[in-house]
Specification:
This protein is mainly alpha-helical and 360 residues long. The protein has helices at 43-59, 66-72, 77-83, 91-108, 118-130, 134-154, 179-192, 196-206, 210-215, 252-260, 287-300, 313-325, 330-333, 339-346, and strands at 17-21, 24-28, 35-40, 221-222, 225-230, 235-240, 244-245, 250-251. The termini are far apart. The mean pLDDT is 85.
Length: 360
């Protein structure tokens, strides 16, 4: 069958130049059939770039503009993401990173790194925010910025187009946990689970996160300190057993003694005291179980709402109570590596007034 005759108005087009939409041009590489975007440019410019690209395809001579991409090969955003190392991420973080990479690849993965613009990135972020996933948009911006930084270092792109996009602002809706609220939830804890009181108290006096609390073993007690290992940051913190929270009249050693007084032999400080379903007596408590048990006790205490505090808010409460008490290095206790992160946990989010202190 004979080839379809070329449209008369395109008869003067050089080989491989196409106009899929009026005023929008592409060039197809005859070597591999790959289509390269020229974009919405004047016809004269499209013809000029196509002619240069045709020269490269036949002679291999280095040119400029589109021909630079043809001569040197093209690398897409998807290829760039695949070049980023993943071996230093923890299991849970790795799953999140891969999810971000998939979102970026779906949106702009096909675009060549040298052709990526700030508008491409901005449009992707806006589309995510319009779906109501503001926090994800924030994470995607951070990830694509890191990727483009790598692209610059590889010579795949001249500048970082993601870095100058507008930062995504996320307003935290969840309210802080107060000490009276904590005590009200603690009072209801026995009605939910026999281990919940110990988990809450251990979190309050040590400031450790849910994962550390769930996996904390008795063997980490070394003399007059207990070693906390935070899986998220890999930080190891030596917490004195004598550290005392005056607001509840208990020390770290007192809470540990409570954990050991369940009458159950277990490697874990917080453990199941009886078998129930998949849970075994003396076994560790799952993270999801801590979350659901705390939420149930909170509901029983009458603390409800979409912005009700979670178990993780005990960590901020610990910092604020010890700051009020004085004499405790809360930055080291919570394992924070920077003052900026430490300040986030000290922020009451308007729950309490800023206290003005005066020296005697």
């Amino acid at each position: 069958m004979a080839a379809r005759p070329r449209i008369r108005k395109r008869a003067h087009f050089p080989p491989n130049l196409h106009e899929p939409r009026p005023g929008y041009f592409t060039w197809r590489d005859p070597r591999d059939g790959k289509t390269h975007i020229i974009g919405r440019v004047p016809l004269a410019q499209a013809i000029h770039e196509a002619n240069e690209a045709n020269v490269i395809a036949t002679s291999g001579q280095l040119q400029r503009s589109l021909s630079e991409r043809v001569a040197g090969g093209s690398h897409t955003v998807a290829e760039l993401l695949d070049r980023l190392p993943l071996d230093h991420y923890k299991k849970t973080s790795l799953a999140n990173i891969r999810s971000l990479d998939r979102a970026i690849k779906d949106a702009i993965g096909h675009i060549e790194c040298s052709a990526l613009t700030t508008k491409h990135v901005a449009d992707m972020l806006e589309a995510i925010k319009e779906r109501g996933a503001v926090r994800m948009s924030q994470s995607v911006r951070s990830r694509i910025t890191v990727a483009c930084r790598k692209g610059v270092s590889l010579g795949w792109m001249p500048t970082n187009p993601a870095e100058i996009t507008e930062k995504v602002r996320v307003k935290v809706q969840r309210r802080r946990l107060t000490l009276p609220d904590f005590k009200a939830i603690l009072e209801k804890a026995p009605a939910v689970s026999p281990w919940l009181e110990n988990a809450m108290l251990l979190a309050l006096v040590t400031g450790q996160d849910r994962s550390t609390i769930a996996n904390w073993q008795r063997s980490t007690i070394q003399g007059d300190v207990i070693i906390a290992h935070r899986p998220k940051t890999d930080a190891r913190i030596a917490i004195p057993l004598a550290l005392r929270m005056d607001a509840i009249g208990m020390s770290v050693g007192d809470v540990i003694a409570r954990c050991k007084a369940t009458g159950v032999i277990s490697r874990y400080l917080v453990h199941h005291v009886k078998s129930w379903g998949p849970a075994r007596r003396g076994g560790s408590v799952r993270l999801s179980s801590i979350t659901s048990a705390f939420n149930e006790a909170r509901e029983l205490a009458g603390i409800r709402g979409d912005n009700a505090p979670t178990f993780h808010e005990i960590r901020s409460l610990c910092k604020r109570v010890y700051m009020e008490q004085g004499g405790v290095d809360t930055k080291a206790l919570l394992g924070h590596m920077s003052d900026a992160t430490a300040a986030i946990y000290a922020n009451t989010r308007g729950l309490e007034p800023i206290r003005v202190r005066i020296s005697a």
